[in-house]
Structures are given as C-alpha cells and as structure tokens.
Amino acid sequence: MYHMRRISREINEEINAVKRELGILEKEGVLNKEKRVNKIMFSLDPKYRFYDEFLRMFAKENELSVQIYKNISKLGKIKFIAVSLKYAQKKPAKEGEIYVLFVGVVVIAEVAAILSEQEKVFGSEINYTVMTEDELKFRKKNNDPFIWQFLKEPKIMLVGNESDLTT
Known about the structure:
Elements: E1 2-3, H1 4-11, H2 15-27, E2 31-36, E3 39-44, H3 51-59, H4 63-70, E4 76-84, H5 85-88, E5 100-106, H6 108-122, E6 128-131, H7 133-141, H8 145-152, E7 155-159, H9 162-166
Parallel strand pairs: 5-6
Antiparallel strand pairs: 1-3, 2-3, 4-5, 4-7
C-alpha cells in the first residue's frame, strides 16, 4: 500500500498530477483506495485482470531485485535467480520454503550480505538457497521435494528463464 505523497516523491511528480492519475487508475479498477486514519492509501487490486503481470513487473523493480541487479557481477557466474511470488506479495514462507533460489557458481558471502540488508527492509528473514547447476539437475532428476515445491509454485525470474530452470 502506498500513500499519495510517497508516490509523488518516488516518481518526482507534482501531487495534483499524481492524484489525478491515481483517480483514473482507481476508476478503471487497477487500484484500490482505502482510507486509514487521515491518509488515503492505494494498492493494486488483486481482482484486476493484469494483477499478476503488474506484480511481476513491480517485483523486478523492488529493492531486493535492484540490489541483485546492481551487484550481479559480484555474485559469481549466475545461471538462474528465481524469486517466489510469495516474496513479492509479502506472504510468509512456510517451514522449509524459500523465497529466492540462486543457481550457478555463487559467491555466498555476497548473496548473504545483500539479503541481510534486505531483511531489514522486508521486516523478516528472507529464506534462500544456493546450488550449482549440477546439484539442481541432480535434485530434479531424483524428484527432490524441496526443489520441486519451489519450481512448481509461481515465481519471478531475475536471471535466466523459467522453462530452462524447470526442464
């Protein structure tokens, strides 16, 4: 949920222009408007037909994704980075679930540094796992429930494409 003034600051536009555009988006059913105390908050309407597409786009622009893209060269030789849609929706991960999968020759210390900083922003632990391409192939071949649980759920690919990851 975003307050109108926050949106105005983040996109560097006048408040009246932001208010007008938010009104149009609300009228079209893209956004929900909710009054909280003395503020009006806006959020993406989950019933909107392009909700999933918007969520995926926003997830690629959130702070975690930005930090990953910014530091990608420090992370090693990355084949795939996949983020669970649960992370984008800020839904809690269940026991044994992960939010982020890193595959390749990965510098774990760099990944840990980025994620520990993002945990402060996210407000809780960000479960992740790191594995080599060979380990991923082995786990898929042997029907490892841990990896298949993640691969079957909706995800956002930050590096690589989903069909290569799941086949």
